[in-house]
């Protein structure tokens, strides 16, 4: 998989996005907060973008931290 | 000028507070938690940092269980009106500020039962008197941590233990203690903690909040207001999770930037050092005022049992005259009257005339206190 493939993690709110970023970065996972792509949700908030290669690690780390996710989407 | 009105609002603030606020206005400025551009993200990160700073200083269970608001008045309203329903019973004390007693009186009109436990003339509250008021429908004990009139500390940890024994909740008003006296939500058994940013937390006005402990089921709690949260925008219903369930509308980003700086300053100076400093000056003030023949000093006369707030009167001179003359002739700023706490003044026997109140902060010095005592002595000599 190319490192330019991205996956979007949808969380409840921007506060949860900041928390998710903190948790993931502590584990060395590269993240960026971006506006939620309109085709995924009409929510006006932000989501966390990660490299698709990191998805399994990220989901495990977030699950261990009890951070609830609203959805996981691969960007083409 | 000697500023001794810190129990109302602390001043001066550490210089880093205004610097942080200017930095926010100049370099961040955007709406926290709404748009996704880089400044909005930065603003959102700053709000999260504010949650972490508040969580740390109170040892809160989770930064996301902090609902920010305008001040503690709003937060106490949220805690009381969010938790209590008609038919519920609530217990409070006779030393409360109007920000506690007025919403409770309002709730009483809608069928909430209220018991007010009387404190003694020094403002002390006995936990067993509180326990004696518990009924089968008691849901909440809502209480101040320290009196804003005489500074007397209330044994919240013991009262919190009673709450846990009887499976009820405790809401604490920390307006007078937060930032100058150690508070630990877990150790002190606090379920709902209201705080205000502009007093000893050294932040600006317009900051405050309610911390919702883990014994509280937020799904059973009613928000004060509903509105935009930047989350779940496609839904017309309020989100169910904290803090968004209770926290609507654009937050005070610039204020929270200042509050972070205030709390960081407290952590750097050390809460123990601040408390030690305040106790020394408070005892110096009490001892000095007690030496003045016409001066009546209220409260415990023991700095270890109170915050750095001292109330007194000069026999034969109205508190309003004392306040005005301290300002105009001695350059000393303080607060007189009932201090938004008529019931507390009834408890200590100073209703309706009130008292003169000196509120000391970490920025006051021995010399400030010495000059304040001399000023009161000077005024009292005029009474024959
Ligand atoms: C004990 C107490 N509770 C509540 C308040 C209200 O604080 P605020 O005006 O920040 O809401 C104050 C301060 O005035 C206070 O001293």
Automatic annotation (TrEMBL), chain A:
This is DUF3343 domain-containing protein. It comes from Mobilitalea sibirica. It comes from the Bacteria. Residues 7-73 form the Putative Se/S carrier protein-like domain. InterPro entries: Se/S_carrier-like.
Automatic annotation (TrEMBL), chain B:
Coiled coil: none annotated. InterPro entries: Aminotrans_V_dom, Aminotrans_V_PyrdxlP_BS, Cys_dSase-rel_unknwn_funct, Cys_dSase_SufS, Cysteine_dSase, PyrdxlP-dep_Trfase, PyrdxlP-dep_Trfase_major, PyrdxlP-dep_Trfase_small. Signal peptide: none annotated. One of its GO terms (molecular function) is transaminase activity. The keyword Metal-binding does not apply. Its cofactor is pyridoxal 5'-phosphate. Keywords: Aminotransferase, Pyridoxal phosphate, Transferase. Residues 2-371 form the Aminotransferase class V domain. This is cysteine desulfurase. Its EC number is 2.8.1.7.
């Amino acid at each position: 998989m190319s490192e330019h493939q991205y996956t979007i993690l949808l969380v409840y709110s921007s506060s949860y996005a900041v928390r998710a970023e903190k948790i993931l970065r502590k584990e060395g996972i590269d993240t960026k907060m971006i506006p939620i792509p309109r085709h995924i949700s009409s929510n006006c908030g932000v989501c966390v973008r990660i490299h698709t290669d990191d998805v399994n690690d990220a989901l495990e780390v977030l699950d261990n931290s009890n951070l609830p996710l609203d959805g996981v989407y691969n960007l083409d | 000028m000697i500023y001794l009105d810190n129990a109302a609002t602390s001043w001066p603030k550490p210089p880093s507070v205004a610097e942080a606020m200017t930095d926010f206005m100049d370099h961040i400025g955007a709406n926290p938690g709404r748009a996704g551009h880089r400044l909005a993200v930065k603003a959102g990160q700053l709000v999260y940092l504010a949650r972490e700073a508040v969580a740390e200083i109170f040892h809160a269970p989770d930064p996301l269980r902090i609902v920010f608001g305008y001040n503690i008045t709003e937060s106490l309203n949220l805690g009381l009106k969010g938790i209590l329903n008609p038919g519920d019973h609530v217990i409070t004390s006779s030393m409360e500020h109007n920000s506690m007693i007025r919403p409770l009186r309002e709730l009483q009109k809608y069928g909430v039962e209220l018991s007010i436990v009387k404190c003694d003339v020094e403002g002390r509250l006995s936990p067993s008197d509180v326990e004696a008021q518990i009924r089968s429908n008691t849901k909440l004990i809502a209480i101040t941590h320290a009196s804003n009139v005489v500074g007397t500390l209330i044994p919240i940890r013991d009262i919190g233990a009673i709450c846990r024994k009887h499976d009820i909740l405790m809401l604490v008003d920390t307006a007078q203690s937060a930032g100058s006296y150690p508070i630990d939500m877990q150790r002190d058994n606090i379920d709902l903690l209201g705080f205000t940013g502009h007093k000893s937390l050294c932040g600006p006005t317009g900051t405050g909040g309610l911390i919702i402990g883990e014994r509280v089921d937020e799904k059973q709690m009613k928000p004060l207001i509903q509105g935009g949260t930047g989350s779940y925008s496609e839904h017309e219903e309020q989100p169910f999770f904290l803090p968004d369930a209770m926290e609507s509308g654009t937050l005070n980003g610039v204020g929270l930037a200042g509050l972070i700086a205030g709390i960081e300053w407290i952590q750097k100076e050390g809460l123990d050092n601040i408390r030690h400093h305040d106790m020394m000056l408070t005892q110096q003030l009490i001892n000095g005022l007690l030496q003045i023949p016409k001066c009546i000093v209220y409260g415990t006369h023991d700095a270890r049992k109170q915050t750095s707030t001292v109330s007194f009167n000069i026999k034969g001179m109205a508190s309003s005259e004392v306040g005005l003359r301290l300002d105009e002739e001695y350059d000393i700023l303080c607060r007189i009257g009932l201090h938004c706490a008529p019931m507390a003044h009834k408890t200590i026997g100073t209703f309706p005339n009130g008292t003169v109140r000196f509120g000391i902060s970490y920025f006051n010095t021995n010399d400030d206190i010495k000059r304040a005592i001399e000023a009161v002595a000077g005024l009292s000599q005029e009474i024959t």
